């Protein structure tokens, strides 16, 4: 059984569309480290979740990256949405000539075993391994490689439009529509999480068969 670590049942439903019924929700509050990139955040969460569950786990981290704002809000998207609001992010982007942006999602998979070389990156947490040689090293992370799968949907920042979706959906336009103007099926068809899940779903059956 694959445990999808999330408090959002919608993510699990989306995952089952790609992976079938062999997915179950795991509500586990892992440590969200500070990082300018999604990969290390998701990888750390996957390691913690695997140690907690003792079963294969999948953790995701996602964010909105605005090109002209040097990737802001990026991994801090949830915090910025709650504290600043999406209208303010639009106002910041509106002052720039370049309004290109991307929704990015990184899935992190950990089952306690190593991975063969492949086009998809593997986070072996070398910095933690090095730190473990010192008195403050977290030895629990050593030897837990994590495989990462990234999904990206590109678009641009626009004035808020649409009544659907959530988060930054009203200010993110893709192919002439904001995410908030799309139906659920339309949005799922191009979503960053869906694209990451599609990559994972192509790889995972071979992994699960070998176990």
From TrEMBL:
Superkingdom of source: Archaea
CC terms in the record's Gene Ontology section: cytoplasm
Pfam annotation, one family: Ham1p_like
Biological processes per GO annotation: nucleoside triphosphate catabolic process
GO molecular function terms attached to this record: nucleoside triphosphate diphosphatase activity
Keywords for the protein's UniProt record, in alphabetical order: Hydrolase
Region entry Disordered, spans: 116-137
Protein family: Belongs to the HAM1 NTPase family.
The protein's name: Non-canonical purine NTP pyrophosphatase
Species per Swiss-Prot/TrEMBL record: Salinigranum rubrum
């Amino acid at each position: 059984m694959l445990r999808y670590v999330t408090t959002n049942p919608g993510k699990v439903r989306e995952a089952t569309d790609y992976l079938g019924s062999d997915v179950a929700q795991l509500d586990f509050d892992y440590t969200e480290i500070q990082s300018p990139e999604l990969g290390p955040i998701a990888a750390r969460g996957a390691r913690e979740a695997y140690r907690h569950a003792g079963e294969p786990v999948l953790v995701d981290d996602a964010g909105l990256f605005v090109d002209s704002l040097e990737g802001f809000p990026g991994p801090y998207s949830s915090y910025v949405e709650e504290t600043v609001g999406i209208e303010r992010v639009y106002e910041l982007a509106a002052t720039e000539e370049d309004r290109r942006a991307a929704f990015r999602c990184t899935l992190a998979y950990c089952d306690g075993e190593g991975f063969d070389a492949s086009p998809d990156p593997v986070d072996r947490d070398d910095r933690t391994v090095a730190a473990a040689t010192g008195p403050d090293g977290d030895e629990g992370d050593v030897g837990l490689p994590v495989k990462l799968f990234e999904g990206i949907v590109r678009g641009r920042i626009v004035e808020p439009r649409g009544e659907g979706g959530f988060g930054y959906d009203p200010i993110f336009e893709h192919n002439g529509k904001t995410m908030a103007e799309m139906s659920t099926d339309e949005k799922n068809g191009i979503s960053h999480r869906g694209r990451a899940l599609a990559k994972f779903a192509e790889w995972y059956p071979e992994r699960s068969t070998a176990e």
